Amino acid sequence: MLLILSIAQLLYVILLAPLVAGVIAKMEEIFESKMGPSILQPYFDLVKLFRKESLVPTVASPFFRIAPYITFAFYLFLSLVLPIITAFPLTFGPIVDFIGGGLVFGAAATIKKLAALDSRNNYSHLGTSRAASVGALSEPIMLLIFIILGVISQTNNPYVINNILQTSTAWYSSLIHWFVTIAFLMVLIVETGKLPIESHSIGELGMIDQSMEMEYSGRELALYKWGTYIKHFLLMNVFMNVLAVPFFVPMTPSIQGVIIYAFVNFIKILALAFFFALLNETVSKYRLFKIFDYVAITFVFAFLAALVFFTTIPGKGF
Amino acid sequence: MANLNEIFILVGFIQIALVAFMQWQVYISSVIKTFSFSSLFLAIFLLVAGYVNREPYLIVLGFLTASVRAWFIPVLLSRMLRRDRWRARELEPTVGIASSIISSLLFAVLGYVIYTWTMYDYVQSTSGAVPVALFLQGAFLIMSRGNSITQLIGYLVMENALYLFGSLFPELPFVVEAGVVLDVIGTIMISGVIVRLREDKIENTEEDFTELRG
Amino acid sequence: MNWIYYMPAGLSAIGGLLCLIPKTSFEKDISIVVSFMTLGASIIVAFMPDVYSSGLYVDGFSKIMQIMISAVYVLTVIFSISYLDHIQNKLFQTNLYFLLLNLFVVSMFFTVVVDNIGLLWVGVEATTVTSALLITTDNNELAVEATWRYIVIVSAGLTISLLATIFIYGGAHTLSLKTLLHTHQTTKIVSVGALLGIIGYGTKGGIFPMHTWLPDAHGRAPAPISAMFSAVLLAVALYAVARLIEIVPIEGVRNFAVVLGSLSVIVASMMTFSQKYYKRMFAYSSIENMGVALIGIALGGNAFIGSMVIILTHSFAKSAAFFLTGNILAGYRTSVIKEVKGISRIMPLTGYSLFFSALAVTGAPPFGTFFGEILIMTKLINVYGPGIAILIASFLVVAFIGINYRVVYMAFSQPSGESKNLDDNAAIPIVGLVIAFSIIFTTPLIYYLLRGVVAR
Question: B203 pLDDT band (50/70/90 cuts)?
């Protein structure tokens, strides 16, 4: 039964990720009193891209062609090991824990950057250097968050963390948990490229993620875009299911509970999408050098969570 | 009702996070507002502690803190600010904003480490480390900024940390605390005069500051 | 009869408030009267028995401090009356100046007699508040900047000593000096409190590394205020440090204080070689003297007597020196050493007095500073061996050369340029110098008064 649930979770992620992106785009346009594109627009874009011919720059190496497949594979793998619609580990769950998951995210990002460098395009290099500088700060913070989450449950298993936060109000309302949640929300904004970090315009002033995919076309571009949607969806799910609102996720294996929860999960994600749309419409973009100050504040929160832990848990001092 | 110790830690850590925020701010008026907010938090904690411990002295102190530190002094500081409207923005601090945020955090950690090394005779648990960390952060705020009002706020953050620390000993004599508050008010008022003079002097530009070095 | 002990503080408070009456020159008369009365009260108090109750803690140490404060107060008030006419561009009127001066003295008197170390802190902080505006009596940009540095650095330092006070309270559960001195305090948290208190009150007293405000403030303040600062304010700060060291007589605290004092001496002596402004030079000499005094206080015993002799001599001699620099500034209109030449030709009384006061503050015999330093060096050799004593002595010689070279240049070179002869204002400094010289003869009295304190 776990295998069936794993495949179900994989399909759930693959099919619903573009929908979330479409919903966010439509909500933003509605806030601006416009009609906006249909929420199925990302699907149409993907289908269109799959039918197009893919062109490759002459100076690129074979790595340029296979990078999108590798990153897509990484994201598919991650959708099997994170708590999306279940709070009990599925068939492939024990392969990586939280930190391993964080490292796999990092690996996918690195491959994308290397492939972008391969194309020798100026804009790609620009995007890569910006992404690398911001990533150099935000990736360690994500790992720090995962490590501190580990002290809650004495393990690094995201499922166990979810179970503990669901059942114990002491841990849920503790300062450690909330500092980590705030820090992860700030990192989420950085990783999913929402304002105030990155605006989804194509202007050179702000683009970080779009410029890395500039040289791709056709099927590879479709896989990159789809992979990005899946990455955003996975991170939002981790935030909701493990940190912010870990309730209602079924802890015991039952097909019925999982199906019901699949709908509840989508509603939770829609709530987060609403929050992001609101954020995108209210704040303006930071100038690039101020991103580092923002990341420093994130680091402060994550580190303070560790300090709270040393202060409140007796016997763990120096 | 949660344990008083937990509330103390909550208030303390929120203060530490707010001081890190202050390092982040660029506009001085928002620094003043953040400081007012954090003093209000401190006053609420004192009120709750007084209510829980049934000590009327702490309740009085809480009201005193709220009125002086969360209202009167920020109003004084904002009035100082309003005279020179173009100076309402802070120039880049000496080490850059991101580094000063991280340094502020490191000072907090240093305070914690120093406290745990010397706390062996102390009755209560490690929660006393929080005010010491806040204290060092206030000192760093003074060191890292050149603007007079931000330096004054750093000094006030240090005094807030001492209040927090003193509330761990509910028997501290009231006279001393009142004296502290009066001294702080006196310092701020005198500083108000000095700050106004310091930033008004545009005519005497022929003197340079080499006399004040070495 | 305990109100007599409060008389010096009370009298100056009344005198200060009376300065607000807007009669012409009333504040000058009232200040002179009040200052003489406080001097009388302090001398009377010195003959009365020690009292340790009703909020007071007055022993021999406090009595000596009170006499010193009131004597310098008298000298400063008399000198200010004529000096204030030489300051152009005053920030506030004369009666506010005297009001602030009197309140400043009130806070210092208050600090040396109270029993509660929390109130001690309040008193020291009050001295900051009242003295800050006095530095900017001469209203220019540099003085304002100096005042700002003074306020920020000293307030931050005093916050550290408030933390120290809280630590001591947490460890000993009392703030009363009498109780703290009678019970042996050895808990770790009280020792940390003492260390922090040395740092905090040392900021006010100009101890390395918190001395950075001192040259600016003392260099830029008007002469009588510089005199008050160097002579009594630093001494009151060291009074607080001495009480803390008395409370916690363990070796770690003593070593710490000796190290800080030595570093102050070394740094200040080296800085005197690169000075271009004569008031800053004298300010560095104050830092050096206070460093030596701190070493003596920390060592205790005969070295403590030596410290008191140094502090007393230094207060009269340094105030005389600063009064004389006031004369020089008013006459020559420059604060640069190189531009001041041949004082002994133009203003002979000032020139020779300057020479002698410089000798006094740098520790030349037969002034008390020399004998005080000998006492301290002897105890230093007894406790730590000859190495560190030779180091300190050599740096004292360095400072001696540095300061006296410049003073001799100023006093005995050929005059060039115009200057007024202000010798009639040199009366007060000469009085101060004579008192400084005679301190050495009062050493037995000092020894008698301090016998309770010097128990180690």
Answer: very low
Neighbors of chain A with 3 or more C-beta pairs under 8 Å: B
Lowest-pLDDT range of B124-138, C277-291, C371-385: B124-138
Read off the pLDDT of each residue in A134-145 and give the average, rounded to a whole number. Answer: 86
* Position A72 pLDDT exceeds 90: yes
**Contact across the interface for B169 and C166, Cβ inside 8 Å:** yes
Determine the average pLDDT of the residues in A217-225. 90
B129–A311 C-beta distance less than 8 A: yes
In this complex, the residue of C122, C125, C274 whose CB is nearest that of residue B214 is C274
| Chain A residue set in contact with B, beta carbons under 8 Å | 175, 179, 290, 292-293, 295-297, 299-301, 303-304, 307-308, 310-312, 314, 317-318
C144-161 pLDDT tens trace: 878 888 888 888 888 888
- Closest partner residue to B105 among A175, A300, A311, by Cβ? A300
- For chain C, percent of residues with pLDDT exceeding 70: 93
Nearest CA distance, A292 vs chain B (angstrom) = 6
Query: Which chain B positions have a beta carbon within 8 Å of A296's beta carbon?
Result: 24, 97-99, 101-102
End-to-end CA distance of chain A, in Å? 47
CA-CA distance, C58 to C365, in Å (whole number)?
32
pTM: 0.80
Closest CA to B103 of A132, A296, C360: A296
C133 close contact with B: CB closer than 8 A: yes
Distance CA B43, CA C244 (A): 32
Q: How many CB atoms lie within 10 A of CB B200?
A: 12
Q: Is C338 on the interface with B (CB under 8 A)?
A: no
Nearby residues of A127 by Cβ (< 8 Å), 6 or more positions away: A116, A207, A208, A209, A210, A211, A212, A214
Distance from CA of A314 to the nearest CA of B (A): 8
User: In A, which residues are within 8 Å of B107 by CB distance?
Assistant: none
By percentage, how much of chain C surpasses pLDDT 90?
A: 6
Whether A292 and B98 lie within 8 Å, measured CB to CB: yes
Rounded Cα gap, residues A301 and B14, in angstroms: 10
Better-scored residue on pLDDT, B87 or A151: A151
Residues from chain B that touch A303, judged by Cβ atoms under 8 A, are: 105, 109
**What pLDDT score does B197 carry?**
66
Q: Cβ B194–C151 below 8 Å, yes or no?
A: yes
Instruction: Return the higher-pLDDT residue of B198 and A210.
Output: A210
Assess whether pLDDT exceeds 70 at residue C218: yes
ipTM, 2 dp? 0.80
CA distance A295 to chain B (A): 8
Tell me the C-alpha distance between B56 and B59, whole Å: 5
Query: CB B101 to CB A304 under 8 A?
Result: no
Are A318 and B109 an interchain contact pair (Cβ–Cβ within 8 Å)? no
Task: State the average pLDDT over residues B102-116.
Answer: 83
B97 in contact with A, Cβ within 8 Å: yes
Which tokens go with B206? Answer: 């022929």
- Tell me how many degrees the CA angle C204-C206-C208 measures, rounded to the nearest 5: 120
Contacts 24+ apart (CB under 8 A), A109-113: A109/A135, A109/A139, A111/A67, A111/A70, A111/A71, A111/A74, A112/A67, A112/A71, A112/A212, A112/A224, A113/A212
